[in-house]
C-alpha cells in the first residue's frame, strides 16, 4: 500500500482542495494559453520538428491544451466523486509534462545563452525552474490525494486503518 508524499496542500489546505485548485488552475492557464496562441504574434518553435509551418505548430499546441483541459476536468470529477481511476490520466500526464517542462526550460535557456542573450537566458532559467518546482509540488499534491483515494478504495472506504507498528 503506497503512502501519500504529502498530507496537505501548502500546509493549510486539504489534499482534496489542493487537487481541485490544481485542476482549475490547469484549465485556466490552458484557456489563457489558447487565447494567447491565436492572438499574440509569437513565432512558436518545436525542438524536433522545426520545419513545420507556424499555423500547424499553433494547432498542435492548441490541441494539447484542449486535451489538458479535458484531462483536468476528468481529474476534478475524480476528486469530487472520490474515484482514483478518473484521476489516473492526469497523474500520468502530469509527470510527463513536468519532465517536458524541465527539458523545455533548460533547452530555451541554453539557446538564449548561445545566442548571446545572457539576461534572457538567466531570466528564462530562474523563472522556468521556479515554474517547474511549483508544477512538481502541485503534481505531488494531486498524486498524494490519488494515493489516498486508491488506498481507501482498496481497503473499503469505511473500514478501520490497517494496523502499523
The counted number of beta strands is: 0
- On the 0-100 scale, what is the average pLDDT? 90
Task: Figure out the total of helices.
Answer: 4
Approximate helicity band: over 70%
* Count of separate structural domains: 1
**Beta fraction:** under 5%
Distance between the termini: 15 Å
Which sheet architecture does the biggest sheet show?
none
Q: How do the SSEs run, as a string of H and E?
A: HHHH
Radius of gyration: 19 Å
Query: Could you say which overall geometry the principal axes of the C-alpha atoms support?
Result: elongated
Structural class: mainly alpha
Low-confidence stretches: none
Description:
It comes from Anopheles culicifacies. This is MARVEL domain-containing protein. Keywords: Membrane, Transmembrane, Transmembrane helix. With 165 residues, the protein is mostly helical. The chain has one domain. It is 74% helix and 0% strand. The protein contains four helices and no strands. Helix 1 packs antiparallel against helix 2 and helix 1 packs across helix 4. It is elongated, with a radius of gyration of 19 Å. The two termini are 15 Å apart.
What are the main properties of this structure?
single chain; 165 residues; mainly alpha; 4 helices; 74% helix
Amino acid at each position: 500500500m503506497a503512502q501519500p508524499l504529502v498530507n496537505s496542500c501548502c500546509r493549510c489546505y486539504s489534499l482534496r482542495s489542493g487537487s481541485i485548485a490544481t485542476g482549475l488552475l490547469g484549465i485556466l492557464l490552458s484557456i489563457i494559453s489558447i487565447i494567447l496562441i491565436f492572438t499574440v504574434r509569437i513565432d512558436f518553435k518545436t525542438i524536433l520538428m522545426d520545419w513545420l509551418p507556424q499555423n500547424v505548430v499553433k494547432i498542435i499546441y492548441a490541441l494539447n491544451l484542449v486535451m489538458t483541459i479535458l484531462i483536468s476536468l476528468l481529474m476534478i470529477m475524480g476528486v469530487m466523486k472520490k474515484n482514483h481511476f478518473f484521476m489516473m490520466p492526469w497523474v500520468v500526464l502530469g509527470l510527463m509534462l513536468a519532465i517536458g517542462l524541465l527539458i523545455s526550460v533548460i533547452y530555451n535557456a541554453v539557446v538564449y545563452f548561445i545566442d548571446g542573450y545572457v539576461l534572457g537566458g538567466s531570466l528564462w532559467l530562474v523563472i522556468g525552474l521556479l515554474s517547474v518546482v511549483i508544477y512538481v509540488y502541485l503534481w505531488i499534491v494531486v498524486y498524494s490525494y490519488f494515493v489516498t483515494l486508491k488506498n481507501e478504495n482498496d481497503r473499503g472506504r469505511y473500514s478501520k486503518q490497517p494496523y502499523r507498528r
